[in-house]
Amino acid sequence: MRKILSLIFYLAGSGIPVFNSFSLEGEIQITGPTRHSLVSEIAVTDAKKSIWIAWRIQRDLGWHTYWLHPGDVGVPPSVEWSLPGGVTAGSLIFPAPKRVKMGQIGAHGHHDETLFLCKLSFSDACKLTDGLTIEGKVAWLACSKTCLPGYANLSLTIPVGEQTKFDDRWKEAFDDFRYKLPIEPPRGWQIKAYKKGDKFQLVVPGMGTSFPGLYFFSEGRIVRSNAMQPVRLKNGNWELEMTQSSWSPEHVPRLRGLLYRKSGWGVDPNCKFYKLDLPVREI
């Protein structure tokens, strides 16, 4: 054991990087009520097959950042990548949202700890032989009773080898993230969207007389996030009513977003979000 510790101290002192296969995470940057780092589910990359990395945000109790579509208030987190030649980054994938409040204003965001995944792809022009160094300039808005904008420069280096190997710790967290992503409704599931005046209505196939926690997270600023979404049972269907946002165009051809049900949709207890993209019929 003493020899192993001595070797670790020697490598650290000599400038040779020491990689922990159980926690491939960059330096954690602490800014106000949030902590930020880059993590990877890959412990070693062959710099040929695509890999996934993530921006990890940890938030103090009572604080939140925002979803990609925050609603009436808020700004979503963003990242500007700096990558070696031949490496490209895909879009940032947000976890499913929660209802949050900035003061007394309802919005869409995230509490506690979350990952934001990003896929890195390699072209033939990529000639990495030592390590893959990833840098990101990240920006976010953290809110509670007040709001604090934040910025940080994050980095992570992944060793390059002949064969890709997974990181024991983060692979499980990445798989859990993907498992909980919203899914498409079952084929043939009949749901319709209507608009009358400044109200939208979703008519959802009923699943009994109880509908706890039914809520629609709208894309764009189409639906007010700071307004009630009452539900009623009519003709065996659930009818969810929403209020049009003042930022919305008058004519809305399609309604896109996530339909949440607290008790899940019956496919799986973790399946709480259906992705919707519906034509809107004016009545």
Highlighted features:
single chain, 283 residues, mainly beta, 7-stranded mixed sheet, 5-stranded antiparallel sheet, 2 helices, 20 strands, disordered N terminus
Q: What can be said about this structure in brief?
A:
8% of the residues lie in helices and 44% in strands.
Which sheet architecture does the biggest sheet show? Answer: 7 strands, mixed
- By oligomeric state, this entry counts as single chain
Side-by-side strand order of the widest sheet: 16-19-20-14-15-18-17
Low-confidence stretches: 1-22
What would the average pLDDT be, to the nearest integer?
89
Query: Number of helical runs?
Result: 2
Q: Which percent band covers the strand fraction?
A: 35-45%
**What share of residues is helical?**
under 10%
Instruction: Give the helices and strands as they follow along the chain.
Output: HEEEEEEEEEEEEEHEEEEEEE
- Overall geometry comes to globular
Q: Structural class given helices, strands, pairing?
A: mainly beta
Query: How many strand units?
Result: 20
Rg from alpha-carbon coordinates: 22 Å
Terminal Cα span: 75 Å
